[in-house]
Amino acid sequence: MTDRYASFVQTGAGRALVKRLGLPDPPRLRRHTPGDPLVPGPVLLGASAGGRIAEPAGKILTAAGVELADPVAAHDADRRFAALVYDASGITDSAGLRQLYDFFHPQARSLLPSGRVIVLGTPPAECGSPREATAQRALEGLTRSIGKEFGRGVTAQLVYVTREGDAGTPVSLESTLRFLLSGRSAYVSGQVVRVGTGTAVAPADWDRPLDGQVVLVTGAARGIGAALAKVLARDGAQVVALDIPAAGDELAAVANEIGGSAVQLDLTAPDAPTRLAEHLASRHGRVDVVVHNAGITRDKTLGRMDADRWDSVIDVNLSSQERINDVLLERDLIPAGGRIVSVSSIAGIAGNRGQTNYATSKAGVIGLVDSLSPVLRERGISLNAVAPGFIETRLTARIPLTIREAGRRMNSMAQGGLPVDVAETIGWLSWPASGAVSGNVVRVCGQSLLGA
């Protein structure tokens, strides 16, 4: 689906009209292409007094081939940076928040288009005093505001890094820094990511971070699922693409394109989890990553909704995930170091008129992450979710024009996202190097104005 307004804005006449009338100005986003450098320019790394993360972060960036700017260069008004990374973990009270102003104020106009802002902090629950916890929680307001202020495709994120993982911080943190700095995170902004403890294994080749991994993708025949299968295969995964029999031709086309395998299965069938487990066991002996992407909509306002619409959406979008997880875990088909990623939605956070069934199911997915991730952590398995916002698919193409345009413009990027944006985010959470990232719900919404 083409966003004609965004295309027009890139023309000379369009830019003039946008400037004159103050219309939304969708920037051209930097997205990932294999072989791209991690960032298109130098990175300015700063730290609060007593910060504990700047040193390992600096080592990660240097090893990744990133040029770290000389702090003296920060005072050069003509110097431009690809990213600003600031370690705020040393801020222990509200007075110390002034250090954020001192770092970011002079650099507010120094970022290149599609630049990156990353603030590193300590989880408030791990802070040694109420004052420190207060100051660390304040970082969320900073990053979300920067994401709305800096414009030009700039994203801003807060990464809380556990103290418990300090000994392994370089490996645990690297996958998250690489994702957030790269073009893979083009439509992710204003998010809080928590890096904890867990098995994080760096790949031999960061261009193929899923080499040797068996990955199951449900709902893989079209849209986000098809994009996801392609991204995971590009990153080295052996993809098992699953969808309903009615989508068999499209599913086969996707599987053939990526050199994966296709499984036609209705996840609502009583024997579906068992049949899926038996297939994975006989063909692969395990599944390293399970991506629960399958989902449906059956929209009606609650007063007009029949019971079948309610039941089918809850069953496909939520209950089927629980049933599959139960069987795969019971049979030990997901090994230690495995990852589960579920697809939620911004509707599960903000709600949506005419989608009480859908919003309930997607909020339930968030509840699944909250409740099950601590249990799975004891088995060395991570569990996260992504929550897409307005993504350009065949489904959103059917939305009435005025509502569709509102969905596109009501975010910091002033445009809809692409299926590949969701796929890249799921890809990052699927990497073995992301094993210490668990219990997160990451919105892929261009920092939508809706919801939290």
Automatic annotation (TrEMBL):
A single Gene Ontology MF term assigned here is: oxidoreductase activity, acting on the CH-OH group of donors, NAD or NADP as acceptor
The similarity comment for this entry is:
Belongs to the short-chain dehydrogenases/reductases (SDR) family.
Q: Which residues cross the membrane?
A: none
Query: SMART domains given for it?
Result: PKS_KR
Under what name is this protein listed? Answer: 3-oxoacyl-ACP reductase
Q: Which residues form the Ketoreductase domain?
A: 213-389
Pfam families assigned to the protein according to its UniProt record, in alphabetical order: adh_short_C2
